[in-house]
Amino acid sequence: MQKSIERIAGDSDGVSYEFPVLRLAGADKTAPSAYLQAALHAGELPGVVAIDALMPMLNKAEAEGRIRGNITIVPWANPIGRAQYHFGEHQGRFHLGTRTNFNRSFPLLAAPDARLLPDATFGGADQRLKSRLVQLSLGHDIVLDLHCDDEGLAYLYVHTSLWPEMADCAAAMGVEAVVLWSEDTDGTFEGASIMPYQNASADVAKFDRRVATTVEYRGILDVDGALAKSDAEGLYRLLAARGVISDTDLPAPGPFKGVAAPLENIDMMPAPRGGAVLYDVKPGDRVTRGARLATIVHSPGEVDGRTEVFAPQDGIILTRRSRRIIRSGEDLLKLVGDSKSADARSGTLED
Fold it and tell me: Residue 77: helix, strand or coil by DSSP?
């Protein structure tokens, strides 16, 4: 394994940011290559500890000559967000200088060619970071962007052009749901990883071996050794199943048994009032139309001081918020419905 340090110039003299890049060289130039990154939203750590648990497995495979394809890993993808604290609270989702989500405004290239990247020299540090991450990932057959939700199941975002061919990856990783999307107007990293191939020739697109996905590893508090080990084993199984690693002791992934649904089926359930949230459901629960999902206590102790929220359709609870205080209009949860949501949206689900 080789380690290098990437440096991103800051927006004022004397300020710069660094992040490590780990590389393992493959012995077979025809084998698929892989790129993994974690903590693009800098406070989302399940992917960071999963990579920490994965590296001993990869180092062992390297020592035994079983790394077939090149592997590039960025365990801390966002040094800018990692350094952001406001009143003692970490703020790793948005760049405080631009108010832009760190997983938005990536360049969506017309082809997988780094020469098409816009010149970020005179942009902000966050744009220079995003440009460099795209450069590092471009050309890899497998691109995994490791995130987590607030509280939730383990699930993937997958472009429709890669499904159901990526079902083996979902099974290998042991996720419980897949959200299928087809349009990216916001410039997510996943979009930057798959959109350049949409109009490419078949020999360049290689959709039969391409993997590009945002991995949502449950909730932001799900950071512990057992989960990290389990997630690392899932990543390893994926790399082995797709031929990046050789491991004859591993069986092929079985069929994916989770839920796969289009993004348009998701109900976000905005809160009708602000207050304290009392949930009746948790991630993974199956609900029917009309079931009570939560109660909002907005006027404690008063008559009519509680407002109930009900399921608009049958489906599965994918996520819910970890904080129990909510403002009017904020989303309570993600419900993966059996049918298209009455409030269906394209692009990203939230800011």
Answer: coil
